[in-house]
Amino acid sequence: MTNIQEALRDLFITGTKNMHAVEKQALSIMTPQVARIEHYPEVADRLRAHIEETNDQLARIDEVLTSFDTSASALKDLGLSMTGGMAAMAHSIAGDEILKNSFANYAFEHFEIAGYKSLLTMAEDAGFAEATALFNQSLQEEQAMAQWIDESLPMVTRRYAGLYAESGSFTAKV
């Protein structure tokens, strides 16, 4: 293995461990959101489905890491999970929590998309065909979720505005 191949392999493994932590963070963000949603069943249903996809993505990442005789970083997983939990908690005290969650989820999906695209570039350049197939599936799921959030944002905004108008308060239920 040349120095370039070794460097690319190391970068890919580090990036894959980072992506594992990012997916753990996603779970720590989405799980509390689902528990609090009351007036947006479509959002709750889609988040539940994406939580299942995220668990599948974690399994794919673990499969890739195992193929390199390594595993995820418990420290990175814990650190990002904690920050995700804090973000979810911060939004829960906002009156317009559902809107803030929608904006944050949209941005986070694009962060994940960028992460998978970067990993795919490295995997293609290094010839890691198994990882390419697995990460392409995860990328497609993240793109579908981002598209769903994009398309549902008008509905969420209108429903929130209606609940606000009925209650006269920013504390309209999630």
UniProtKB/TrEMBL annotation:
SUPFAM superfamilies from the xrefs?
Ferritin-like
Q: Which residues cross the membrane?
A: none
Matching entries from Pfam families are given as: DUF892
Q: Which residues form a coiled coil?
A: none
> Which domain of life, per UniProt?
Bacteria
InterPro entries per UniProt: DUF892_YciF-like, Ferritin-like, Ferritin-like_SF, YciF
Q: What is this protein called?
A: Ferritin-like domain-containing protein
